[in-house]
Write a structure and sequence with these properties.
266 residues; mainly beta; Immunoglobulin-like; four-stranded antiparallel β-sheet
């Protein structure tokens, strides 16, 4: 990797009496000086991309040997982000940033989600980013990369999250009781305009309707350990009499059914 400063390159294990001529390709580099088997190169200002250094060696026997060495010049380049471009509330997605060239020697990635994070679970982790979606809307995921030369421009990825109901279980794992909250269609946030950096938000609130639910807790074999009927979108279920293990909590209003994994640990 080469920045906008001087870097020394050398050709080793030469025959005694050999001569070297140096050159560059791709318009990203400039030759500053050369002496013996070494030369100093510098990246051009504002350059970002691959550069090639070439050394042409002429041996005392008249044999001409050419060797090329590829380097990355300047800040990193990100060619794109991969991941789900659409998902549902309650779902999760992993996104990955892809470099133009790994020789850019990235030291860190900077992720951001617009508009805001709200109550979404946002977990950047190097060149990947994990998001659990709890608010519907239209989002733009952005990432840039940094190396010792500086920071790249940001790469953007549009994401659409649709509304649906989902369950929140707390605590999970549970010992004595678990609080079950049924979240119906969520507030919807949107970005106004395709290039807005500070998005204008629109909020749509659904009418609050009291609902009666049938609740079941069963294991992976389908054996039901608990069954009851509850009214309202939040209620408590006792689990003190259920053996330790992994179960499924299923809540149904007769039209929609929501489920989530529950761990019981006494």
């Amino acid at each position: 990797m080469v920045c906008n400063s001087d870097y020394l390159f050398s050709v080793n294990n030469l025959y005694v009496g050999s001569t070297i001529s140096w050159s560059v390709f791709s318009g990203m580099l400039q030759l500053i000086s050369s002496s013996g088997n070494s030369a100093v190169f510098r990246g051009l200002a504002n350059a970002s991309g691959p550069g090639i250094i070439q050394a042409t060696v002429t041996t005392p026997f008249g044999v001409v040997l050419t060797t090329k060495y590829t380097v990355w010049v300047g800040v990193p380049g990100i060619i794109g982000i991969t991941g789900l471009s659409s998902n549902l509330v309650g779902g999760s997605s992993t996104y990955t940033a892809h470099l133009t060239d790994v020789r850019a020697n990235v030291t860190s990635y900077n992720w951001s989600l617009m508009p805001g994070v709200y109550n979404n679970y946002f977990a950047p982790n190097g060149h990947t980013c994990d998001i659990a979606w709890y608010t519907a809307g239209y989002y733009a995921l952005a990432v840039n990369a940094q190396n010792t030369c500086g920071t790249s421009s940001s790469c953007y990825f549009p994401i659409s999250i649709s509304s649906r109901g989902y369950l929140v279980l707390s605590p999970n794992p549970a010992r004595d009781n678990v609080q079950v909250s049924v979240t119906k269609v969520q507030n919807t946030s949107s970005i106004s305009g395709d290039t807005s950096i500070i998005p204008e938000l629109k909020t749509i609130n659904d009418q609050d309707i009291t609902t009666t639910y049938t609740i079941k807790i069963y294991n992976t074999f389908g054996i039901v350990f608990y069954s009851d009927v509850k009214t309202g979108d939040s209620f408590t279920i006792p689990v003190s009499n259920i053996q330790e293990g992994t179960y499924i909590v299923e809540v149904s209003d007769g039209k929609n059914s929501y489920s989530r994994q529950l761990v019981v640990k006494h």
